[in-house]
Amino acid sequence: MSKISVRHEHTLDLEESRNRIEHFESYMGKYGAKLVWSGNNAELKGPGVGGGVVIADKVVEITIKLGMLARAAGVDPARLENSIKKRLNGAFHPDGP
After folding, report:
1. In the predicted model, what is the mean pLDDT of the chain?
2. What is the pTM of this model?
């Protein structure tokens, strides 16, 4: 199992951070994964993938665990990690997504 951890620092309040992370959520939805929210934490669930999202005062942390199904489908962990970082940078840019 491959594990991806991305930590993105920000200066937004919790509510605005949660609004901005919705763009990441829709991106993951394209791959059949969804976020199940409980406050400012979410569990990531999907075929061949698991993990979570934590939104804190100054940081967003995303953890993704790629199972055998995702690896068999050709998901490259390094490319996925870079894509997530790029999307978070865009979402948390001062001018918004």
Report:
1. 88
2. 0.86
